[in-house]
Amino acid sequence: MQEKGTISIHTENIFPIIKKFLYSDNEIFLRELVSNAVDATQKIKRLATLGQYNGDLGDTTVEVSFDKDKKTITISDRGLGMTAEEIKKYINQIAFSGAAEFVEKFKDAKDANEIIGKFGLGFYSAFMVAHTVEINTLSYQDGAEAARWTCDGSTEFEISKGDRKERGTDIILHINEESEEFLDKWKLQGILDKYCKFLPVPIKFETKTESVEDGKDDKGETKYKSVEVDNIINTTDPIWTKSPNELKDEDYLAFYKELYPMSEDPLFWIHLNVDYPFNLTGVLYFPKVKNEFELQKNKIKLFSRQVFITDEVKDIVPEFLMLLHGVIDSPDIPLNVSRSFLQADSNVKKINNYITKKVADKLGELYKKDRKAYEEKWNDIGLFVKYGMISEEKFYEKGKDFALLKNTKDEYFTLEEYKEKVKVAQTDKDDNVIFLYATDAEKQDTFIQSANKKDYDVLVLDSPIDSHFINQLEQKLEKTNLKRVDADVADKLINKDQSFSNVLTEEQSTKVRGIFEKAINNQNFTVEVEGLNPEELPVTITMEEFMRRMKDMAQTGGGMGFYGSLPDQYKIAVNGNHKVVDKILNAENEEAQTKIAKQAVDLAMLSQGMLKGKDLTEFVKRSVDLI
User: Fold this and answer.
1) 49 annotated among ligand-binding-site residues
2) pTM value?
3) Cis amide leading into 277 (omega within 30)
4) What does the pLDDT look like over 342-351, one tens digit per residue?
5) Binding residue per annotation — 622?
6) End-to-end CA distance of the chain
7) Is the dihedral of CA 359, 365, 371, 374 positive or negative?
8) Of 3, 146, 197, 540, which is least packed with CB atoms within 10 Å of its CB?
9) Is there a binding annotation on residue 206?
10) What is the set of domains in the chain, with CATH numbers?
11) What is the percentage of the chain residues whose pLDDT exceeds 70?
């Protein structure tokens, strides 16, 4: 048997087109060829189950090997195999009239996952790294003859009699000069680990040394010896292929460690398992993130029938859940013809919605089942919940029942609980409930204590996303405003139309303001002399709530860049009823007045960590002089 011919396409050379349009990364040739070998193996197993193949299945391990001297990589299986006629059908007759037409026809194909799955197209990825490819195959069919197919990367091929004695197929790649990097054990091992780690058929690559028991020594202690065993690179039944009731917590934790060896244990996980209206399995883990954005987003791995596809899952997983870790496996997610990129599709949206709902349901369940344990996890999961409420309306509707607010006393409340808690003491003259919050409780301690003296409660909202979360709460919660605790002096944080009268005359107030303006000498600070509680500080430095919030949002990329570029503007509130003001007015000369005023302002700045460098040094010297 010998035959020569031309591959049935109306173009001079299909292979440059394949390289340019179908495959974005040349290492995936190994994924495609191993996947094809696994498909062929699963099909023979299926035929055996159906009684359509009665032969001995034998060892169905797929083997990957390489020969550095001969510059070849070989993928061998004991699957269906092919006859010469089947080679002509599946390999030679690529079902389109021209490469350009093919690319145009299938670039938006809804069934692209099936297209790539057919033995043929994925096979041609071999020519990304090989100048010549051989197929040596023997079909499972009774009386079949072994066949060999050879192609040198042009449209010319040759079919001849093969020499394979057992059912199955060898794909032999003769590696081209530019791709000799793949003739390396560790390079191939890395690719197999990346793409084939969870394929459902054992994959052998080389051998490895293991230590096994070898009887007892003279002292009765166990002896060990080193033996060479097959290096099986994959786990054929990962946990996401099992039913949740088959698994224990230890199984989920062990799998997490397998995926992310250097990570802390996750907080909890969600097992995805749905077969209608789409097929989706997987496990998503909530990692410990704390209060900073650890934006290592590409931590969710997408598989299709246990073949790794990508860790770019932004279309499938809602944006706010991109910080999760884990795996998703679905044959229903449409891929382009190289299996490398997701395509827009109604199934993707359905899966996105399903994952959102599953996460919301899981969080709601945890909250109801054990609120104390949920509160203990809040510092870690709060970022996910707030992000979700901001970005997904449906998630907000569920999340408002299990989102928590934490105050400076480490007490936790739902949104409704907190509003009920503070509405008596913190309702302003217009019947708005005011939530006070701190972004840095340590730095803002002076303001928090002043608020507490008035029986005001203060929340801690210190994560990077909280400036956006605050805005959302104001939009969603009826007649509710949020104000940072240092946005004004305590007496004016909540406007109740109550105030202390100023003991200073108008003339004295004007004089005091002038003294402080001279002491500060900074146009970004506006001085106001106010009638405040005599027990409050003599000077308080604040930034107006709107400006502060716009600047916070600008820092976290909230589209407020204009405000971020403006210089900080502060208000200096001088307490006209404080005894320090009396001391200033009664000072012996203008220099002494300025010195006391400057000292009072620097104390206020020091309390907020604003006093630095030369100003701090001068403050220390002045303090020593005043002692």
Assistant:
1) no
2) 0.70
3) yes
4) 555 667 778 8
5) no
6) 109
7) negative
8) 3
9) no
10) 2-205 (3.30.565.10), 239-373 (3.30.230.80), 403-493 (3.40.50.11260), 506-626 (1.20.120.790)
11) 85
